[in-house]
Amino acid sequence: MATEEQPARKAKASADGREAGAPGAARRSLPPVERVESPEVKRRIFMRWVMWGSAFLFFAQSAAASLAMFWPRKVVGFGTKMDVGPVSAFPVNSVTKFAQGKFWLSRTPQGAIALYWRCTHLGCTVPWREDEQLFHCPCHGSIYERNGQNIAGPAPRPLDYMTVEVVNGHLVVNTGEIHERAVALPQHMTPV
Ligand code: FES
Fold first, then answer.
1. Which spans in 71-133 are helix H?
2. What pLDDT band is residue 20 in, cutting at 50, 70 and 90?
3. Substitution site in 139, 144, 150, 151 for ligand 1 pocket (most atoms within 8 Å of beta carbon)
4. 138 CA from centroid of ligand 1 (Å)
5. Which regions form coiled coils (predicted)?
């Protein structure tokens, strides 16, 4: 009788997967492991993310600053070449202020001239007076014509001028090239 029951039990155990040596038998018999993290562990993980995030931001900012340093920039202003626009924008007898470049662009019948606005007496900024059609220094009263020639006051010489070129129909003023002169001459004008 016992010998007949043994194969029957064995067959049932094998069907349930509980037979010794059956693959996966041990795994199926264990309950699933639930991973529970303590608040302390969660805090550590959070702090680790914050630390790595901060480090990433720091290096990203440093890299961006380094790249910006080497990136070619369009520099405009005093000391550089300035494209002030097409010749047609400056009618004859117009005087136009360019504060960034510290000059007046004066268009005369002979051509264009960029006059450095620094008074040749003691260096005050010389304004163009539309009502007088002259440059008139507010400090000690020196007066200059639209070509920069000094005609009154203590100024010892005309206003200095900057190199002007015509490039593709545009006037380009080199504010890094300033010329002194004893007298204003037509050759100081750039034909346009
Ligand atoms: S600084 Fe212009 S007149 Fe003296």
1. none
2. very low
3. 139
4. 7
5. none
